[in-house]
Design goal:
By secondary structure, the chain is α+β, with helices and mostly antiparallel strands. The protein folds into 3 domains: 2-145, PAS domain (Beta-Lactamase, 2-Layer Sandwich), CATH 3.30.450.20; 147-220, Signal transduction histidine kinase, dimerisation/phosphotransfer (DHp) domain (Helix Hairpins); 223-396, 2-Layer Sandwich (Heat Shock Protein 90). The protein is 49% helix and 21% strand. It contains 13 helices and 14 strands. It has helices spanning 2-17, 33-41, 47-53, 72-76, 93-105, 147-183, 188-220, 232-249, 268-285, 316-319, 331-336, 343-353, 380-395, and strands at 58-61, 67-70, 80-82, 88-90, 109-115, 125-134, 138-145, 228-231, 253-258, 263-266, 291-299, 302-308, 357-362, 368-375. A hairpin with a 5-residue loop joins strand 13 and strand 14 (368-375).
Length: 396
């Protein structure tokens, strides 16, 4: 990547300025407007054309570290403070230091930097910075923004660490229980007890494995790729049916209602999984002989699916993290009930792939409401019925 930047910039500017160049990012300290104007007039011809076609944030600085030219993205990246006539000031002294090092050695410099963004709420920027001389006076600095790459690497590392941690408990339990069964071979009652616990831990492993596969699938899915018209009523019915046995065992009533006949575009199986996970959570955290409500509403061009429980609720602090992988508001209880900590993360990614969002309203001790919001497919039901009528006619 570094060589690609160097070759591109060196060829483009070297043709007109006889200069060697490299890639990198931002620079400068402001001097008087007169000095800046003189520097601007002395910029080698052809440099402006190169900066105009660069997508990356790039800056050309003079011997005083005054920014005399920038690419369009330099100011947008927050690395250069925009000023009149295309000039700017450096927001981080590391950039000016890199420019000074290039002048001292005469050699290109390549460094990894973490730069703050003063006055902004989006944290730091991770940049791979390349800098080189342009002629005898100027330094070109070009930055390759690696913020998203670094973030994804951190997410992957955290995910692997979390999966490893989550797998340790059931795998360790399975090993211990297998040994216990072998030791208690002459005691049928103990064997049955250990076998029951072994089956439970095996179920936890199966659930965790399936949730990891499902999360990987929805995270890697293209938004609305190969979508079809999906009836919301069918999604709700299937999701409720999947939770009926567990709900009945706790004496929980799952009641559904709201607007009928709505449709959205997407994947029916994925949407059923998302709604199922919300209902499963509601049943899991609701007390026995309580009620879980599932309601559907059309609000403008949006379909809203709300799942409400009468459980312990979620604190305001935890609501901000509830959709994170492996986050549990009550870790001990989740493990006892076999929760993987991935259900809500799957919901979030599945709904985002459908162009929607999921929200939560909750108050400790008062229950919770999770709401899925999806774009409405106008006239969806009529078109679906026409398709079915056509298929039936074809069969006849």
């Amino acid at each position: 990547m570094e060589s690609a930047w160097l070759v591109f910039v060196a060829l483009a500017v070297g043709l007109v300025a006889g200069a060697s160049i490299a890639s990198v990012v931002v620079i400068a300290a402001r001097t008087g407007s007169r000095a800046a104007a003189v520097a601007a007039r002395a910029v080698p011809s052809g440099v402006e054309a190169v900066l105009d076609v660069l997508d990356a944030p790039a800056v050309l600085v003079d011997p005083s570290n005054v920014v005399v030219r920038t690419s369009a993205s330099a100011a947008r990246s927050g690395l250069v403070e925009a000023a009149a006539h295309g000039h700017g000031v450096v927001v981080d002294p590391q950039i000016a230091m890199i420019a000074s090092d290039v002048r001292s050695s005469g050699e290109p410099v390549h460094r990894e930097l973490v730069l703050g963004r003063p006055g902004r709420g989006d944290g730091t920027r991770h940049l791979r910075v390349h800098a080189a001389l342009v002629g005898a006076r100027y330094v070109l600095v070009v930055g390759e923004d690696r913020t998203e790459t670094v973030r994804l690497d951190e997410v992957r590392r955290d995910f692997v660490a979390n999966v490893s941690h989550e797998l340790k408990t059931p795998i360790g339990a399975v090993s211990l229980l297998a040994e216990a069964i072998e030791t208690a071979a002459d005691d049928p009652q103990q064997v049955r007890k250990f076998a029951s616990r072994l089956a439970k831990e095996g179920g936890r492993l199966a659930t965790l494995t399936q949730d990891i596969i499902e999360l990987s699938r929805v995270q890697g899915a293209e938004p609305l790729a190969q979508s079809e018209l999906v009836e919301v009523d069918a999604v709700i019915a299937h999701a409720i049916d999947q939770n009926r046995v567990v709900a009945d065992a706790k004496g929980i009533v799952i009641a559904s209602g709201g607007t009928k006949g709505l449709a959205v575009f997407g994947h029916e199986v994925t949407l059923v999984t998302a709604v199922h996970n919300l209902i499963a959570n509601a049943v899991q955290y609701s007390p026995e002989h309580s009620r879980v409500g599932v309601g559907v509403t059309q609000r403008g061009e949006t379909v809203e699916i709300a799942v409400t429980d009468q459980g312990p609720g979620i604190s305001e602090e935890e609501q901000a993290r509830i959709f994170e992988r492996f986050f549990r508001s009550d870790p001990a209880r989740s493990r006892n009930t076999g929760g993987s900590g991935l259900g809500l993360a799957i919901v979030k990614h599945a709904i985002q792939n459908h162009g929607g969002e999921v929200r939560v309203w909750s108050q400790a001790g008062r229950g919770s409401t999770f709401m899925i919001r999806l774009p409405l497919a106008k006239g969806g039901r009529k078109r679906k019925e026409l398709v079915r009528s056509g298929e039936a006619a074809g069969e006849r």
